Amino acid sequence: MSNLGRFDDCSYAVVSTVGGECGLLWCDDGREIPQLLRVYPACPDHKVLLRVIQKEYSRAILFDGALPKWLQPASRFLVAYYAGEKRNTKQIQPDWQWLKQYLFWRGQTEFTRNVLAATFKIKSGTTVSYGELARNINRPRAARAVGGALARNPWPVLIPCHRVIGSDGSMIGFSGHGAIATKKRMLALEQ
After folding, report:
1. Is 161 an active-site residue?
2. What is the distance between the alpha carbons of residues 184 and 171, in angstroms, rounded to a whole number?
3. Distances from the Cα of 136 to the Cαs of 73, 123, 132, 151, 179, in angstroms?
């Protein structure tokens, strides 16, 4: 996340869920639309989550108080998602317009944007392979590049990269805390 270095006014919040604590990192300098820079999937250890956030962006300040209104859809979704509320998560999941407006897309290539948009469309409880996702964006030979783009997904859970698996059904390629174990746990939660 080296492209975060240019932000001076970054905050993060910890969202408590049944699955552990999630993190939200954002910038709101008051001049532009606030931007969600990073989502951290549920981590059972509060101290580990804080270390991960501080390692990635040491100047971020822990936000004290109620989340800003624009961030509440993401927070509600994370709470419902980890509670296993399938019907509720579908109803409250931030839509693509919200994601386009509030996620920090600068620095993402057109290819990566296409991969993340296609990944967002993968329905809960289903999986696709990296190759299938490459074909979905009309880049059939780009399975490895799709994997690279998803490895850098700054918004896991909101953009469900955990639903992308190896062509043989293997659980590969999750860069969030807990790696493959977290990916398996998230997929099991959706069944």
Report:
1. yes
2. 7
3. 28, 14, 6, 18, 25
Of the pLDDT bands very low, low, confident and very high (cuts 50, 70, 90), residue 164 is: very high
Was domain 110-190 assigned CATH 1.10.10.10? yes
Enter the pTM of the model. 0.89
Q: Where do the domains of the chain lie? A: 2-92, 110-190
- Asked if residue 10 lies in contact with residue 60, where contact means CB atoms within 8 angstroms, the answer is yes
Q: What confidence category does residue 87 fall into, taking pLDDT thresholds of 50, 70 and 90?
A: low
Contact 163/126 with Cβ under 8 angstroms? Answer: yes
Across 16-45, average pLDDT: 89
* Candidates 22, 27, 43, 161; catalytic one: 161
